[in-house]
């Protein structure tokens, strides 16, 4: 029952909203960091494939090896050494007849290099024109980032192509290595936010006494109606002598200015005795206080013992008529005594 009351209270609702906001922000942050890490890793993969492919294609002896009697015997060991040293998935060399001269899979060496339709249509014309191309290779069951660099003879004639690729699975695995760190940081952020939210919610729960927004609004409307309806003037004064609240009757009896609330009692233009009595922390019981031409019956009690903040509540009742001088019935119509000569 207590937990249900807490969840239905204003503090409980604030707790749920804050936790939801924190979770959304953390989820957004983790997603953004994962995407950024993936983008950075893919960018690094592109740079690696470009560097490896260009270095191997422009290496000394490449053209002579392609024109030699057994290019695979010369290039295969070199390609495998480069692949293992750089961490790429493959370093493939094929000649102008599209015969595969090197491959991490020995069975493919000497066989035609099967170009995907995208590569044949978009990439190959650029290679024949002597330009290097970096592209995403998307085949059924295999996705990679690849760079193809043409091998050109001194006169600019194409002699072959070096293609280097890194699978997207490798890129994802590199991102996955950082994912525990990201998730750990996100979990720590959620935990710290939850602790702060719980502490804030507990304080708010104490201040609102477990009431929900509807109950708080109803209570405010009820108290406001009572303050305006009572015939007595009501003042609430803070512990430092500021007027926190004054109802309509109190404003009339003390002739308070419109901006009286939140101002010190000493600045409200009251006579010194009234200002001193209201500012004093002492209790007052049925004391008659003269305020201008009115006689006010004043009662004053501290608010702190009743659960409120330091200060006092003052009630005022107009008792001017009760304390005005009264004539005896026999004095009606009797002339005033003449002044002595």
Order of helices and strands: HHHHEHEEEHHEEHHEEEH
CATH class of the largest domain: Alpha Beta
Query: Number of DSSP strands?
Result: 9
Main sheet attributes: strand count, strand direction, barrel closure? 5 strands, antiparallel
Residue stretches low in confidence (pLDDT < 50, at least 5 long) are 1-7, 326-341
**Gyration radius, in Å:** 45 Å
Number of separate helices:
10
Q: Determine the fraction of residues in helical runs and give it as a percent range.
A: 40-55%
Derived from helix and strand composition plus strand pairing, the structural class reads: alpha+beta
**CATH architecture classification of the largest domain:** 2-Layer Sandwich
Shape: rod-shaped
Strand order of the largest sheet: 6-5-9-8-7
CATH fold-level topology of the largest domain = Beta-Lactamase
Beta strand %: 15-25%
Q: How many domains in all?
A: 2
Give the N-to-C terminal Cα separation: 89 Å
Per CATH, the superfamily of the largest domain is: PAS domain
- Rounded mean pLDDT is 77
Give structural attributes.
341 residues, alpha+beta, Beta-Lactamase, four-stranded antiparallel beta sheet, 20% strand, rod-shaped, disordered C terminus
